[in-house]
Design a protein that fits this description.
By secondary structure, the chain is α/β, with parallel strands linked by helices. The chain contains nine helices and 16 strands. α7 packs across α9. The longest helix has 25 residues.
Length: 397
């Protein structure tokens, strides 16, 4: 029996168990760095299948080891994140969130359950490969500074030393049964922008007495937009997004506030350009504010780095995915301006971050991630568990 057939049969046999695991995690979501019950539940599943692990890394993180023959030869890391989002679920399903205002709207329940499935499969095949497969269940992907960076700081790439890393992410715009890859640069870095615009408040009917921070804030946004986001703007031909999603001034119809706060995001794919844009943004804020004889401040919370997939590893993974799923079910993906803290791993070791199709237009499963109606075609759990196991073991045989 071929390795593909063995793993496909096991993923089929495990489906009901992995489905139950996914639904339990989905039903009991926890926010970033608060995944205590989720971690306890995952540990129970690992114990059930006699998979050794270490817990308590960055409080809720887990590292499980599956050792094949000659375990020191090579170590493949497989990462799954565990945290949920502060979203009130609107799905009318029996496994809907029971935690008010918290939802697995980004598929981390899928990532964790698929990783458990892959671990169970690989644990049954450990006499067929040389090396070690290190599964990490990671907290806090959705919140800076990112659980990946903290787990790396606590040594998850050591003891044993990791040779390469894999992770998958749900992709609702792709039909279930398909997967997607992008070799090389794939996802953007991300920084949070916070601008405090200082003005001088007063009665709206007396413009001679106030300096309206709303006007200054608007001009700052327009100047930044003109610099980076208009069709002919100079962004050094490097993919760049600067966007603002929040502006807040506590005034009224006839009350001009003293202060306006703006919040936004900056994303790009080059570290030198990233640093240059930080300086340009500060310059725009300072010069625009100086026109009105006020001082405003820009605070930049530096977030995740860009995510770059190792070309050789990713091309191999694409070829192996075609072996496992068939060539027609493997697609090449374009660049994305979204961000992921798995990027920290890609900066340290050769890595492959790929997309797992979870949509189904026929069943009307089409909602995007980070929405209150996000869900998956649960048949994707078979693909996710089996392919993850296959991509890991192929590096060790």
């Amino acid at each position: 029996m071929s390795l593909v057939t063995k793993i496909q049969q096991q993923s089929e046999q495990l489906f009901s168990e992995i489905l139950e695991i996914r639904r339990h995690i989905h039903q009991h979501p926890e926010l970033s760095f608060q995944e205590f019950k989720t971690a306890e539940y995952i540990q129970l599943q690992l114990k059930k299948h006699n998979i050794s692990f270490t817990s308590g890394i960055v409080k809720t993180g887990i590292v499980a080891l599956i050792e094949g023959k000659n375990p020191n030869k090579k170590t493949i890391l497989v990462r799954a994140d565990m945290d949920a989002l502060p979203i009130e679920e609107k799905n009318n399903v029996p496994y809907a969130s029971t935690n008010v205002g918290v939802m697995h709207a980004c598929g981390h329940d899928v990532h964790s359950s698929c990783a458990i499935g892959a671990a169970i499969i690989l644990n049954s095949l450990k006499t067929e490969f040389e090396g070690t497969i290190k599964f990490i269940f990671q907290p806090g992907e959705e919140l800076l500074p990112g659980g990946a960076s903290l787990m790396i700081r606590e040594g998850v790439l050591e003891n044993p030393t990791v040779t390469s890393a894999l992770a998958q992410h749900v992709f609702p715009s792709m039909e279930t049964g398909k997967v997607g890859f992008k070799a090389g640069m794939y996802m953007a870095s991300t920084d949070e922008l916070y601008i405090r615009v200082n003005g001088k408040g007063g009665h709206a009917a007396m413009p001679q007495d106030y300096i309206n921070p709303l006007i200054i804030a608007s001009e700052i946004i327009l100047n930044i937009n003109a610099r980076f986001m208009l069709p002919n703007s100079d962004n050094n031909k490097i993919p760049t997004v600067v966007a603002f999603g929040k502006i807040e001034g506590q005034g009224a119809t006839n009350v001009i506030p003293d202060v306006v706060n703006i919040a936004g995001t900056f994303r790009t794919m080059d570290e030198n350009w990233r640093n240059s844009v930080h300086a340009i943004l500060k310059d725009i804020v300072e010069k625009t504010s100086s026109k009105y004889a006020v001082v405003s401040t820009l605070t930049i919370e530096k977030g995740y780095p860009f995510l770059v997939n190792d070309k050789a590893l990713t091309n191999n993974c694409m070829a192996w995915a075609k072996e496992y799923l068939g060539e027609h079910n493997v697609e090449e993906l374009p660049l994305r301006m979204t961000a992921e803290d798995f990027a920290f791993f890609t900066q340290k070791v050769p890595s492959c971050f790929y997309r797992l199709g979870t949509g189904n237009k026929t069943k009307n499963i089409v909602s995007g991630v980070h929405t209150a109606t996000f869900d998956i075609d649960e048949n994707a759990l078979k693909t996710g568990s089996g392919l993850m196991a296959y991509l890991a073991i192929k590096q060790l045989i």
